[in-house]
Amino acid sequence: MLQANTAFTGPLIRLNEADNVLIAREALSIGQLLQFDGATVRMRAQVAPGHKVAVTRILRGQPIRKYDTVIGRASRDIEAGEHVHAHNIELIDFERDPGFGQDVRPIDYVREADRATFAGIVRPDGRVATRNFIGILASVNCSATVIKHIAAWFTPERLARYPNVDGVVAFAQTSGCGMSSPSEHFDVLRRTLAGYARHPNLAGVLVVGLGCERNQVADLLESQGLATGETMHALVMQNEGGTRATIERGVAAIEQMLPAANDIERRRVSASHLKIGLECGGSDGFSGITANPALGAAMDLLVRHGGTAILSETPEIHGVEYMLTRRAVTPEVGQKLLDRLAWWERYTHGHNGQFNGVVGPGNQQGGLANIFEKSLGSAMKGGTTPLQAVYEYAEPIDRAGFVFMDSPGYDPVAVTGQIASGANLICFTTGRGSMFGSKPAPTIKLASNTPMFRRLGEDMDINCGLILDGVRSVQEMGQDIFEHILRTASGERTKSELLGLGDQEFVPWHMGIVS
């Protein structure tokens, strides 16, 4: 993995002494002579920042090592100074020893009296919120437009009387019918909707259905242990008299909930109440050097203070799952992670999909050759503490510490599941740039490099490129991120919130066949 003494000076970076590739810290030109560890490397190609350069001759069939981990093998002879990327790396699969629990180390917990705090919103049942929205959920796509109209009625001018309410949000979705029930897909949808309905960041909830859909509103509420009351209302369009009547009754229901929703006061609470969803999108060759390990350092701090870090995106730990199973607190926890990966093998095969192979165009352009290389960086977001539990998508998270929630790698789907599981804040790393936002839990975006941070400054919250610039160490950056998390949880707005993002990013996982 990334060595603690990695130097971020000069045009090349060696992540581990055992590596046979270096990382270009800046653009490199053909013929350029570079001094590294007392040797001279002559560049044989133009290489973009974040991409790999052979530090020595690598024969065909020999392993390519990055972070002292095999990310593939040479598909042909590669000379020192050559660009090493998808064109000359062959992806190979190999047996990995899960080593359940072998890397578990005790957590140096901070005493409760000394733990960091933030200004949270404490609900009557003791749950702690970081934001204060009223949410409208559609049981089916047929009610999606109606809930959007209800939410749109609550303009900033109309909400001015309720300054403590962050907004009224419509969580429209495209499923709820044309699906088998019971089925795994059906269960996941209901679990996701229920997770949002219970979320502490929602002071009140309105559920709207059509009336003839598979996902009946009454059955949804009953099956998930939800009940209507002062903070939970439900409407069925076919019973209410249609579109206009449902919108009017929906507006009235929310107006009824607004005074109580506004009657809140933030107070200092322990950081142990934080559940942080960890996400990455548009990753590049620097993501696994700066933003991801720095976020991992912040999560180690969070866990020491009693909080919860939620790693997801199961396809993006493929090939490095052993790094997590070796940190599993029990063999059962480690095996559950392997079981989810095995499920993905079957799922992608059955849907003519791809689980082990090519990364996206943006990842490739940013320097990542394949899924193994991407996974190495992605897993670093979770830090180094023991893996306490593994959860299915949108399953309520009831264990503190570092945990894993199964999800696709698609950003909005993964984050939707994390929020449904209870995440009250999201940290999102990116190298190429992302304009993602989320509600009701806000998203903090972390840039892996300074040029992108400057180019997309209106969207980025934290510049982890300072590590690459030699200004901050990974640990120092982790401390900065942790402090930023506490401020955000206390109400400080993220860039995506200031831009009004998050209304369209509710995307439950569509697992099954639409019929």
From TrEMBL:
Entry's Gene Ontology molecular function annotations: lyase activity
Superkingdom in the source lineage: Bacteria
Domain SAF: 19-90
Pfam family, one: GD_AH_C
A biological process term (GO) from this entry: D-galacturonate catabolic process
Tagged with keyword Transferase: no
InterPro entries given in the database record: GD_AH_C, GD_AH_second, SAF, SAF_UxaA/GarD, UxaA_altronate/galactarate_dh
UniProt keyword Lyase present: yes
Keywords: Lyase
Record family assignment: Belongs to the UxaA family.
Name of the featured protein: Galactonate dehydratase
Organism the protein comes from: Paraburkholderia lacunae
